[in-house]
Design goal:
five-stranded parallel beta sheet, PIN-like_dom_sf, 10% strand, PIN-like_prokaryotic, alpha/beta, PIN domain-containing protein
Length: 163
């Protein structure tokens, strides 16, 4: 079972991969994430269009109402905190987020493995849904759409495919 936050949903959608992830995995999220997606969908840009596509697929993932998260910190926002709460409630295997700054703190707050969204592309390669070349191409598309080029998260995403 996988819990996905707003940033990861948007990243996967900008790489035209969210539907494939939803077909392959039991994806869960929270009402807070849904609200963030609705807010993001109001923008007329690549992120807004990505959020809209995730919202159009909401029948493909399970949305949970979590109690008001008390786990917010200077690095963990309410959406991420709601995902941590959900991971705890469901004993989820993975929490997928693209907030690299919050990632270490999130890992300390949950037993779920916390990872960035490109790991889902790597997993789709292992399930023979994508070739390695296709997955790398989607990482490049994602990086361009999310302004990741030359950033630490981009290097981490590339490292997933260099091993």
């Amino acid at each position: 079972m996988i819990v996905i936050d707003t940033s990861a949903f948007i990243s996967l959608a900008t790489a035209d991969s969210v539907e494939m992830v939803l077909e392959e995995y039991d994806v869960q999220t929270t009402e807070t994430i849904l609200e963030e997606l609705v807010e993001t969908a109001e923008y007329d840009d690549v992120h807004g269009r990505a959020a809209t596509s995730v919202l159009e697929l909401k029948h493909e993932y399970t949305i949970h109402d979590t109690s008001e998260p008390a786990l917010e910190t200077s690095r963990v926002d309410s959406g991420e905190a709601s995902c941590v709460t959900l991971c705890r409630e469901l004993s989820a295997d993975f929490l997928i987020t693209d907030d690299l700054r919050a990632l270490p703190e999130l890992q300390n707050l949950t037993d779920a493995q916390v990872a960035i969204s490109p790991i889902m592309l790597k997993a789709l390669v292992k399930r023979n849904r994508l070739t390695e070349k296709e997955a790398k191409g989607r990482v490049e598309t994602l990086a361009e759409n999310r302004d990741w080029l030359e950033s630490p998260i981009y290097r981490r995403a590339q490292d997933l495919f260099s091993a």
